[in-house]
Amino acid sequence: MTFWEHLEELRKTLILPIIVVAALAVVIFLLKEPVFDIILAPNSTEFITYRLTGFFSSFNNQNENSQGAFVQLINTELTSQFIIHLKISFYVALLLAVPFIFYKLYQFIAPALYRREKKYSTLVLTFSFITFFIGLFVSYFIIFPFSFRFLANYQVSGSVNNMITLSSYTGTLITLSLVMGLFFELPVIAWLLAKLGMINAGILKKYRRHAMVGILILSAIITPTTDIFTLLLVSIPIILLYELSIIIVKISAKKCRKKFEYIK
Fold first, then answer.
1. CB under 8 Å to 92, separation ≥6 — which residues?
2. 20 to 30 A Cα–Cα from 164, which one of 7, 25, 250, 255?
3. What's the CA gap between 52 and 108, in Å, rounded?
């Protein structure tokens, strides 16, 4: 096939995922109340993370109201709530459609792969889905709730009250979710690069300090807030993932050596 024929096949491949995302977005838009109950759950004093840890139970927040909301979120623009509703609908639809999108892309490239490459690509796709959604859960249940409650309570002066907008709340939630979902792909990427012979455990150990500095800098850039608390909440899991990547690459290399010695 020529380049333009490949491009035409890619266009046909992407049409169905686009239709699926659009259809899901419409359905989610209509399910406004249950969707936003989930989105706004970390603002509830009864959120499962707060009840299990009791980490912030000692905080006496004057903004806590009778409805169980930790902070009274506000809206400052006329069209803001409607725009946020649209964004959340698209974002949730895209997340739900991620497995289907990657499956269709895999179907597009599968004819060009050898049998062994298909085996590895299937494993990579499967673990990518798992680690991506683990990252989303970590962000939703750990990183965002702790960041939100810490920052909502933080004051430079008693004369300055925090008024959190809905757009700030949802923007921070979406950003942290996507970032952590992508960063949790690190072990899978490291394993794949090791299989291709591009990296090994020695290289990862050699540049560990450089990686730590890079992770802190990158976390500071992508973190929607500028406080050290959120920075540490984002960077520490990534550092642990880097260490996990070293272990995975090392184990993978040992298995390859054993297999080679057996064949030899």
1. 24, 25, 28, 35
2. 25
3. 45
